[in-house]
Amino acid sequence: MRSSARKRLSGLLAVNLLVLGASPVLAEDEHWRLFVAEHGDPVVHAIDLESDAAVGRFDIKAPASLYKSHSNRTVFAVQGDANLVTALGSGVEIEDHGDHNDLRVSEPELLKVTATGGKPSHFVEHDGRIAIFYDGEGRADIVTERRFLDGAEDQPASIKSAAPHHGLAAPLGDHVLISVPNPEDPSKRPIGLRVVDSAGEQVGPVHDCPGLHGEATSGDLLAIGCSTGVLVVEPGRGGPVVKHLAYGADLPEGSVSTLKGDTAIQYFLGNFGPGAVVLIDPSEDQAIRLVKLPTRRVDFAVDPVRSEQAYILTEDGRLHTLNILSGSLTASVQLTQPYGMDGHWRDPRPRLAVAGDVIAVTDPLKGLIRVVDTATLKETRTIPVAGRPYNIVAVGGSGASH
User: Fold this and answer.
1) How far apart are CA 247 and CA 249, in angstroms?
2) Residue 20 domain-assigned (yes or no)
3) Where would you find the membrane-spanning parts of this chain (predicted)?
């Protein structure tokens, strides 16, 4: 449509709205909201980052790990000790209209539909579907976000493995990937990955992945950590194509067990032993690059807006910026008191979430969220939170507010 015609049409629409008594206000806006789970207590807080005000407190059944949906509309509280997954409506809705996004903000809410099963653990969303894996049953439920938002009580599709184990499942196209338990001792880490079709039938061989743990998506790729390397899975005409990226001989002893994927460019960031991370780019000849850290790692996050950056908090309480292209730490600041990595893995330690131009860092021993500028790593303010703020996700974005 030509500019002159578009102007005439815009004028006609404005006149019609005024005639109808409407106010044609269309302002560009950005809104971010934090969801924070307390350590040791069954509580999730919702906080608006624009005002730092608490906009919701949700009493659940057990301490939770938090996951946000790709749409940002739903936050899932996975409660392994309560055999339950609770869904929260974030109150932030971003609707894509091609040339612009519509942004609607409302109160967060506890949604009616839950997911139940023995000891839920890994939660993976891909291709519009969600896989929830229940360690206590060796079962995966395949659901959609719409099921929770619409309040539908339909039965989800389920896929069973050979035995209960600490595993995972991930949707990919019309298929589902599911871990294979150790046949000698299912309490140990899984040994591989199999692909099943929509009828639950296995497709192709089992793909070896000893010590399987950790997964992430980046675009249409899925990565899964193994003790021997990383499995990278992509869609293919006949089903998922699985490729094993072996750790290079130049890497020290270690393996990947936690992965984060970027949304804008296809790469993965993973842990590698206690004192390093790895950058994984399946398109490169040297697909796995090691980045040594000054001390042991506490948590890390990729930046969905500035794809060349990631952030790492180490046990000395320092926050670092990692340049993805160079593989080097480019900035570092003292942010919290030291959080030693000795002790139980579930001890209260900081967690990171990126929300637009800031990084939100929980500081459970101080009862704070520290808000840090992504460009300077300067702490701009703190937000007090009741209890010990622990797991955290950020939902939000920009769009036109009507």
Assistant:
1) 7
2) no
3) none
| Angle at the Cα of 348 from the Cα atoms of 119 and 258, rounded to 5 degrees | 60
Q: Starting at the earlier edge strand, list the strands of the sheet with 175-180.
A: 169-172, 175-180, 192-196, 202-208
Report if residue 10 sits inside a domain: no
Domain count, the chain: 2
Which CATH number goes with the domain that contains 257? 2.130.10.10
Position 74: which residue type? T
154 exposed, middle or buried (CB, 10 Å; 0-12, 13-18, 19+)? exposed
Is 11's pLDDT higher than 80? no
Rounded Cα–Cα distance for residues 74 and 259 (Å): 21
Tell me, yes or no, whether 287 and 247 share the same domain: yes
Q: Domain containing 365: what range?
A: 27-110+298-402
Give how far the C-alpha of residue 310 lies from the chain's centroid of Cα atoms, to the nearest Å. 14
Has residue 22 been placed in a domain?
A: no
- What band does 132 get if pLDDT is binned at 50, 70 and 90? very high
- 157 Rama sector, left if φ>0, alpha if ψ -120 to 50, beta otherwise: beta
Model pTM score: 0.91
CA distance 195 to 222: 13
Distance CA 251, CA 273 (A): 11
State the Cα–Cα distance between residues 172 and 159, nearest whole angstrom. 14
- State how far the alpha carbon of 319 is from the alpha carbons of 12, 205, 310, 340, 377, in Å: 53, 43, 11, 14, 8
Tens of pLDDT, residues 170-216: 999 999 999 999 999 999 999 999 999 988 899 999 999 999 999 99
* CB-neighbour burial class of residue 222 (10 A; exposed 0-12, middle 13-18, buried 19+): buried
* φ and ψ of 224, to 5 deg: -135, 130
